[in-house]
Amino acid sequence: MWPLYAAGFTTAFAAHGIAANLGAHAKGAVTSLLVLGGLLALYDGAEVVLKPVFGTLADRIGARPVLLGGLVAFAAASALYALADSPGWLWAARLGQGAAASAFSPSASALVARLNPAAGHGRAFGTYGFYKSIGYTLGPLLGGVLVRAGGLRLLFAVLAVLGAAVAGWAALTVPAAPPLPKTRQTVLDLARRLTQPAFLAPTSALAAATAALSAGVGFLPVSGRAAGLGTVATGAAVSVLAGCAAVVQPRAGRALDDGRLGARSGLVAGLWVTAAGLGCATLPGLTGILTAAALIGAGTGLITPLGFAALAASTPRERLGQTMGAAELGRELGDAGGPLLVAVVASGTTLDHGFGALGLLVAAGASAALLRRG
Prior knowledge:
The protein is an all-alpha fold. The protein has helices spanning 2-25, 33-61, 63-83, 87-114, 121-173, 187-194, 197-226, 231-257, 263-280, 285-314, 320-348, 351-373. The chain starts with a helix and ends with a helix.
């Protein structure tokens, strides 16, 4: 399992490590905010388009070869810019990284489900989410250290080595999980399965959690600066958010496996905690910001392993890659949609109203889940 956790860490570290340093350290390539936005969007845009495709491919040929191919491609794309320092190659490398992550990320999730018994899915996905959260947390910090030491090319070089090392590790230790026999599935069958509550409920919760997490990471520091707080305090807020998400996920997974927490009740509770955190983001001063960060982190940490475990429990094993790819698409849409909603509302009112609007949307999702259960 450890190479799969390392794969989750790799995509998270790359996403946040590069994104946090592009604007300040790629001056020859980033000539405007529009160019910066394009470079940032390439990674996520590739994932939105390709994750369902590679998830389906993993079901067809086996998740292990798609995992290995994605990691090797990630290493090659990272090495591209490390060896050829030019704006054009930076665009190509960023797009290649996103496409490669689209292959190995849903494959890793599918293998986590395939290689663990159903009774252990909570622990497995909790640990997987923990290491992804560590990647999100350390990405900006370690990425900044590497860029300061040797420029953006050094960061890409380290990512190339990391991708190659994880690929080699996985090739040696991850057992084969050959594709399972499956009945023929039409487009209508797929649409019917992906519109069932068993898929939509956990995927919507995962999207809401990711939306809140992205909005918190992006805008809580803005609230801190507006309140007169320094960079240390605002950085601490982001660290608290990521740290709480990392700590809660394994515990939530164990509680699910031990029968102390139900998947549906846990998802509803996670949505309410996340909504409360977004509400606290409207409170003034450091206390409001840190409370918001802790609650958003705890809520998303509760939702993530329970959501993936619920998806794995309701999906035929021969369709796990397809389901995980589609669920990852939902998360990517939340990743983009959450900050966008906050920004749009805030541009016409205030940032507090933006947080409040997203909080109301997350709370509405929790209320809808309660009504469906009733």
